[in-house]
Amino acid sequence: MTHEEIRNKIQSIFIDVTENAAIVLNDETTADDIDEWDSLVHIQLIVEMERCFGISFTAEEIGGYGNVGQMADGIAEKMGVVPENRP
Amino acid sequence: MTFNELKKNLKKDFTGLKRVKLALLGDSATQFLSLALRAWGYEKGLDADVYEADYNLIYETLMDGNNKLYRGEYEYIIIFQSAEKAADEFYHLPREERPLFAQKRASYMRVLADTVAANNPQAKIIFFNYPEIDDGVFGSFSAKTSYSLLHQIRKLNVLVQDLAQEKGSVFVLDVLSLVNRVGTSNAVSSKWYIVSQNVFQIDFLPAVAKACIDIISAFAGRSNKCIILDLDNTIWGGVIGDDGMDRIQLGDLGIGKAFTQLQVWVKELKQRGVIVAVCSKNDERVAKEVFEKHPDMVLRLEDISLFVANWSNKGDNLKYIQEVLNIGLDSMVFIDDNPFERNLVRSMFPAITVPELPEDPASYLTYLQSLNLFETVSFTDEDLQRTRQYQEESQRAVIRNSSESLEKYLAGLEMEAVVETITPFNLARCAQLTQRSNQFNLTTIRYSEEQLTQFLNDGGKAVCISLKDRFGDYGLISLLLLEKKNDVMEINTWIMSCRVLKRGVEEFAVNEVMKVAAAEGAAAVEGAYVSTAKNSMVKDIYGSMGFEKLGDGKSRREVRCFQPFTTFIRRYDSRRN
């Protein structure tokens, strides 16, 4: 799974959880850029990502990613895939 | 169902659903639970207005008499105290006080309950009990020492039960059983507790919300009252018509045990007051013979209120069962191993609960037990009599069909009524009538036992009517609550069991009310009809009883010149044995 594929998957999870189809993520996106992304939504996003990718974040990781790109990297690492095309 | 799936309900249209007001207080984060409650309410046709109190301020909120909690007329106050916070408290106690932990916390919960009752006597309090935490300090030795956390939590859960038994307004949401069902590792999450103060995993919350809404639905009169069973491959293995009595599978051998266990469960339900009916494609004689003669049958004909075995389609038979038993389709559960029959019933009667059974009969029972199909908010002596009452009803149906006139039929029933006020002996039944009756219920005001007692203490009058006839005893079947306002006796509540419709009990009740009104010096009796989705059968009752319509939905009948209605019911003041 490429970095971009993971990010697209994250984007579809965002859309599903927030029920806002207009959300577009890039690597630099942070919680400040998306109105719905508050602490409650964050919990739901993490739970859905854990389910979707079959991984588990540690307590520290849950609040630790600076942006969507870092999150995707974290997921790739947990899944044991080496990101092929990280720019 | 995951939380994310359940959450989608929040966007749906709640208009027309029954509104209920809940207050949720917790000592851990409750935002998700609050959303889950509203979303699960939608599944049960409820528009739940959930007021979420400030985080971890249970005591402060309840003690503040001016809090929105008390001003908003909340009907259900849900108090979710977590085992995690209880554990914190336990660890902070000096060693010598630890053996008293459960008692102290139970006393504290009693104070909370009393405070709610003092500020809002109408409210029902729903306490969560405590999932067990084995902290690994004492191991199995916990059982032998009252200094252990696990020992104290177990004791606390028993004390919470005691509190609920003692106080009519207190109910327990058995979250401990829910956790046991899915396993601690699927319910509780220390990770999420540390990160966000959420004790439970987010995907466990739909189960918690369901259990809570089950209780509230039962209060709203929306509980299942009847289980309808298919026979072949549902309550025994094999097909009686093909295999014969000696070849069907039942009893201790092989898969027979699964069916026997299912029957034991149904028999327990019957003894709790759930009506059991049979609906089977079979020859009636052949099917009944199993109930009469098979040595391993647990269910017998006397357990079945209505036995329908023929070759008509199940939809028509269910319609017939519904008419004879005179209960709502939405209070019926249909159990059938055949997916075709299940889908047919689902499509014809969406209101009937039709559990999808697992493929393996060995799993039928545990699956059905996991669904909590028969939540209730009361259990009285009447529940124990129900099967007999519905069987008697079928006998009456035979007489009714053979009598030449209604009068002859009614006279032939030899009805006797006992009229009394609310007493300690019938209080539970009276409260239950107000909580469960939906059809013959003029105002649909629900009362707890405490509230009924309060009503009487405030000067209200009650007329309770019990009825029996030559076929059997109906028990207490009608309740009227009366309040005198100036020179008018107002009918605050008029409820009657639909089992005794059109036997003259309506007229008999009006006679009694007029008698009370005259004795209390009232000039007239007034009653209102408050329309609900289910009580249209009584919308014209006052008119048919000679009341005059007033402008505001009320009807009135003068006490002067009232000529009592003729009925075929003999009246007694107390029960004769």
Kindly describe this structure:
Chain A is globular, with a radius of gyration of 12 Å. Chain A has helices at 3-18, 39-53, 59-62, 68-79. Chain A is built from four helices and no strands. Chain A has one domain: ACP-like (Non-ribosomal Peptide Synthetase Peptidyl Carrier Protein, Chain A). In chain A, 54% of the residues lie in helices and 0% in strands. With 87 residues, chain A is mostly helical. In chain A, helix 1 packs across helix 2. The mean pLDDT of chain A is 91. Chain B has 577 residues and is an alpha/beta fold. Helices cover 41% and strands 18% of the residues of chain B. Chain B is built from 23 helices and 17 strands. An eight-stranded mixed sheet of chain B has the order 15-16-14-13-12-11-10-17, sandwiched between helices. Chain B has a five-stranded parallel sheet with strand order 2-1-3-4-5. In chain B, strands 8-7-6-9 form a four-stranded parallel sheet, sandwiched between helices. The longest helix of chain B is centred in the last third of the chain and has 22 residues, at 381-402. The model of chain B has no long low-confidence stretch (mean pLDDT 92). Chains A and B meet through helix 2 of A and helix 1 and helix 10 of B.
**In one word, what is the shape of chain A?**
globular
Structural class given helices, strands, pairing of chain B? alpha/beta
Chain-averaged pLDDT of chain A = 91
- Distance from N terminus to C terminus of chain B (CA atoms, Å) equals 54 Å
Per CATH, what is the topology of chain A? Non-ribosomal Peptide Synthetase Peptidyl Carrier Protein, Chain A
Major beta sheet, strand line-up of chain B: 15-16-14-13-12-11-10-17
Distinct helical segment count of chain A: 4
Shape category of chain B = globular
What is the level 1 CATH name of chain A?
Mainly Alpha
Mean pLDDT of chain B: 92
Largest protein interface, residues of each chain? A-B, 14 and 17 residues
Q: What proportion of the residues of chain B form beta strands (DSSP E)?
A: 15-25%
Question: What is the total domain count of chain A?
Answer: 1
Uncertain parts of chain A:
none
End-to-end Cα distance of chain A: 15 Å
Number of strands of chain A: 0
> Which architecture of chain A would the CATH scheme give at its second level?
Orthogonal Bundle
Low-confidence runs of chain B (pLDDT<50, min 5 residues)? none
Instruction: Give the proportion of residues in helices of chain A.
Output: 40-55%
